[in-house]
Specification:
The chain is α+β, with helices and mostly antiparallel strands. Among the domains are: 1-134, no CATH class; 191-318 and 334-352; 401-470, no CATH class.
């Protein structure tokens, strides 16, 4: 938005028909002014996209900032499974703010010319044309409520770099829901000519977090700008801009990455900034000491014969990957020295893996297990291909042993956030059809010494993959629709001549096929595993594979029951802390207590003490659930479903163990469990329970 619509239309017509060719040709050929283009190809597609950190949307996942070819910046979220929704259009909001401020960044700015002046027309467009945008890390602050309680409030920043070198810093409250979650928007003047790239600089020193913005220019300079975060407690910034590279050497800055590292010689944290400049990699090591901010910089040369088209970094170990369009990828490993650091680099020839290819971009997975490469066909016999077929290829960067060791020693303790590592482990077990002995022994030691539910979930993951690898593959492709007519067996119909044996055989085949479908979708295995076993005529003499399947199935059920009991203890702990004497909650407290104590072999002193306190507080009250259809009592006999005396079946929420008596409910990403939606009547502690991930696989719930 550069002005009133009528005035903008008049100005466009005036500039297009101007007798001055410097005005008319500049206007007609610039797609920012003239997005329709008339005879030019339409502006479809995306210029750039940026993922936010985990935990920014309502489901605890990432937000996606997308910049389209027609320079529109929007934010999208994956609210429902496989469905992306646009939450806000930042270009429209920023344009409205500038329009209200008469296109002045501050009140002290002198008024500029009218819209009819071509230079003013260009200025108003350049101050709203995004070049890049990047997300910061999540900032957590404490907010005091009306009853003097403190609650943690998360926020995230989105920095948007514009053509005129200004930077808009948006602050969003988490979880981000839309326009109402926008806290503030501040504009910073960078002073960089022809800005090309942007990145956040986040540095932690002595438990104090510092932040800034690294801006690169198409002419070569790179510098860090201070970002004042007065509204975010515990965050600090630089006093003045820091120039990392000032030479105007006409080597455009293509990409910037900031990697936090630990300096083994200085015994403190440091920050490594790497930037792709032409065919070289510029690096800068930032270190805070008693003398102030120490800056060491240099270039890594001799990497590529062509300009670097993409760069990515593994932030866990500091490894940097660069690629040029000729299909060559370089791996740069930083090695610290007494003074600064040096890089060891080695060549990864994609042509040895994929043949002759051209590379257009690379990205490393969050835990460094895979390198994703966008490729097209390369030259064949000196000729370019007629058509370009873009493909995403995956190259493994870690071995199975390295992935397993990283999962065992992980500080994250969340399988969903390490899905690239678990994928390597899954592939190995599916291939070998057994769990390696060293992994089993190491995991058992972790469970015995630590007892964390993370290791129990890891064990459940391994057992489920082992069970899947031992099953017989279906004879037909499961996704392909069947053209056979469905047969209905009517036992009382005299016209049907099917025998009882035929009916049993058909039922057995149908149950086996259904169980394979459910297992492939990642659903609960214990419900369908028994039906999916090969049917044997002799019950006493089962085959060895069938006995092994039964053994693995029993182990899966035992681990699932352990995880269920641990979560039940957590739910009961929340009930005890947040309820008064004889207070009725919607959680079936008495049923959960009875279910925990129903097994004589389960002897947990913590659970017995907790249940004793809860029963004492309930004062002999039971507060059972009732069926919404017939008002009969719903007994708590199963953790997955509730069945009343009239046969009405309701699924149970795995987070609160309440019966989901509605037609709409949520499901975890791997279809492991179901959960109900929070209601306005629910207290805060129940809503907090309903925000948790799946207790079996750590996946978010949709």
């Amino acid at each position: 938005q550069v002005g009133p619509k009528k005035e903008v239309a008049e100005c466009k017509e005036k500039f297009a028909s101007s007798v001055d060719p410097t005005v008319s040709q500049t206007f007609m050929l610039d797609r920012v002014f003239n997005p329709e283009g008339k005879s030019l190809p339409p502006m479809r597609g995306f210029k750039y996209s940026s993922w936010s950190p985990l935990g920014c949307d309502a489901n605890g996942r990432c937000l996606l900032a997308a910049l389209t070819m027609d320079n529109r910046l929007t934010i999208h979220a994956n609210l429902n499974r496989l469905q992306w929704v646009q939450l806000v259009d930042l270009t429209e909001i920023y344009g409205e703010r500038l329009y209200e401020a008469s296109y002045k960044l501050s009140k002290a700015d002198t008024p500029r010319g009218e819209l009819g002046d071509f230079s003013e027309f260009q200025r108003r467009h350049s101050m709203q044309t995004p070049v890049r945008m990047e997300w910061s890390g999540i900032c957590t602050t404490q907010q005091v409520k009306h009853n003097n309680e403190c609650r943690d409030v998360g926020s995230v920043l989105l920095a948007v770099l514009f053509e005129n070198s200004n930077i808009a810093v948006w602050q969003f409250q988490l979880p981000f829901l839309g326009k109402e979650s926008i806290t503030s928007c501040n504009t910073i003047e960078s002073g960089i000519n022809s800005p090309s790239v942007l990145s956040w600089w986040e540095y932690e020193h002595n438990n104090r977090k510092m932040s800034g913005l690294i801006v690169g220019s198409a002419f070569g300079p790179v510098k860090i700008l201070p970002v004042n975060l007065k509204a975010v407690k515990g965050y600090f910034t630089l006093r003045q801009p820091v120039v990392l590279w000032q030479e105007m050497d006409q080597l455009p800055v293509h990409s910037i990455k900031c990697i936090p590292l630990y300096h083994p010689y200085q015994k403190c944290s440091c920050s490594l900034v790497v930037a792709a400049r032409g065919a070289y990699v510029f690096w800068c090591l930032l270190l805070i000491s008693k003398a102030g901010l120490n800056v060491h910089n240099s270039h890594v040369t001799g990497l590529h014969s062509l300009p670097i088209v993409s760069m990515t970094a593994d932030k866990q170990n500091g490894t940097v990957y660069t690629c040029s369009s000729d299909g060559k990828v370089r791996q740069l490993i930083p090695i610290f020295t007494d003074v600064a650091l040096k890089f060891e680099h080695q060549l990864i020839k994609l042509s040895e893996v994929f043949g002759s290819v051209r590379t257009h971009g690379i990205a490393v997975s969050p835990c460094g297990a895979y390198l994703a490469v966008i490729t097209t066909e390369g030259m064949t016999n000196g000729l370019h291909p007629v058509n370009k077929n873009y493909q995403v290829q995956f190259v493994t960067l870690k071995t199975f042993e390295e992935a397993a060791a990283q999962l065992l020693e992980s500080s994250v303790q969340n399988l969903f956030r390490q899905v690239d590592l678990t994928d390597l482990v899954r592939w190995k077990i599916l291939k070998d059809k057994h769990i390696p002995q060293f992994l089993q022994e190491a995991l058992d030691k972790k469970i015995e010494s630590c007892g964390s539910t993370y290791f129990w979930r890891f064990k459940l993951f391994l057992l489920r993959i082992l069970y899947q690898s031992m099953q017989k593959a279906p004879s037909e492709v499961m996704w392909r629709p069947s053209h056979e007519d469905a047969k209905i067996l009517i036992s009382d119909s005299p016209g049907l001549g099917s025998t009882e044996d035929d009916q049993e055989e058909g039922t057995s085949k149908q149950a086996s096929k259904q169980s394979l479908c459910d297992t492939g979708k990642g659903m609960d295995i214990d419900d369908t595993a028994e039906d999916s076993l090969p049917q044997s005529s002799d019950i006493g003499g089962r085959e060895p594979m069938e006995e092994k399947l039964l053994e693995v199935q029993a182990q899966i059920e035992a681990v699932e029951m352990h995880l269920t009991r641990e979560h039940m203890k957590r739910v009961l702990g929340e009930v005890y802390l947040h309820t008064w004497i004889t207070e009725n909650t919607s959680i079936p407290t008495r049923g959960v207590c009875d279910f925990l104590m129903s097994n004589d072999g389960y002897d947990d002193r913590t659970a017995r003490v907790l249940i004793g306190h809860i029963l004492k507080k309930m004062n002999k009250q039971t507060f059972p659930e009732h069926c919404s259809l017939c008002k009969e009592i719903l007994p708590f006999t199963d953790r997955k479903q509730a069945v009343c005396s009239n046969g009405h079946i309701w699924l149970r929420c795995f987070l609160t163990y309440q019966s989901c008596q509605s037609l709409v409910y949520r499901r975890c990403l791997l279809h492991d469990s179901i959960a109900r939606h929070p209601t306005p009547e629910d207290p805060e502690w129940i809503k907090r329970l309903l925000q948790g991930p799946c207790t079996f696989c750590d996946s978010p719930v949709f």
